[in-house]
């Protein structure tokens, strides 16, 4: 009798529909509390800082609707941002363009994440981070969670905070460096942004180590 093939991926209806608090709850039962979630926003843009946030949620006051910030509208992110600040412990740190250029975007992101964790008013016993990396130098256990902003509520909260803070920073930058459209594209490499760089040249917020600014890519 031939063997029945087995699926190499879970059934669609077995997949979680959004982030939950299961990792945090398991850690709490094991005595690892508080648990912080950490995430960043702005690794890909050509300009502006990378912003990291660390959040410790109150299990009794978790805002409804937390999700990966990229899955939410700007209005929904702003509303949840206010709720997170009102109910959770929050810390934010950033690495600017010059730090990114001196090291690289990965190290600058991890350093911002580390500083965000250190800025929390309570010291976590576990830090859950989005992606593949754990910031070096944490004073507690760190655990990287692939697609964590869509799986873990605390990381989702951090992703929202980081995104809202960075978007606000880039909106302010639009006033300081007019003509680039930072308030619209937040520094990402849109056609409008690239055209502005072509006519105005880079400003102090641009990441000169990124490909469009390297000598071999310039005409």
Helix percent band: 25-40%
* Tally of DSSP helical segments: 7
Going across the biggest sheet, name each strand in turn.
3-2-1-4-5
Straight-line distance between termini: 66 Å
Instruction: Give the rounded overall mean pLDDT.
Output: 92
Radius of gyration: 19 Å
Question: Could you give the order of the helices and strands?
Answer: HEEHEHHEEHHH
- The backbone outline, from C-alpha atoms, is globular
Helix/strand/pairing class, anyone? alpha/beta
Strand proportion, as a percent range, falls in 5-15%
Counting DSSP E segments of at least 2 residues, the number of strands comes to 5
The largest sheet, given as strand count, sense and whether it forms a barrel, is: 5 strands, mixed
Description of the structure:
This protein has 219 residues and is α/β, with parallel strands linked by helices. It has helices at residues 22-29, 74-87, 97-102, 105-118, 153-176, 182-185, 191-200, and strands spanning 35-41, 50-56, 89-95, 126-130, 141-145. The chain has a 5-stranded mixed beta sheet, with helices on both faces. Strand 1 (35-41) and strand 2 (50-56) form a beta hairpin. The longest helix has 24 residues, at 153-176. The chain is globular. The model is unreliable at 1-13 (pLDDT under 50).
SSE topology:
Layout: H1 22-29, E1 35-41, E2 50-56, H2 74-87, E3 89-95, H3 97-102, H4 105-118, E4 126-130, E5 141-145, H5 153-176, H6 182-185, H7 191-200
Helix pairs in contact: 2-5
Organism: Mycoplana rhizolycopersici
Cofactor: Mg(2+); Mn(2+)
Keywords: Cytoplasm, Endonuclease, Hydrolase, Manganese, Metal-binding, Nuclease
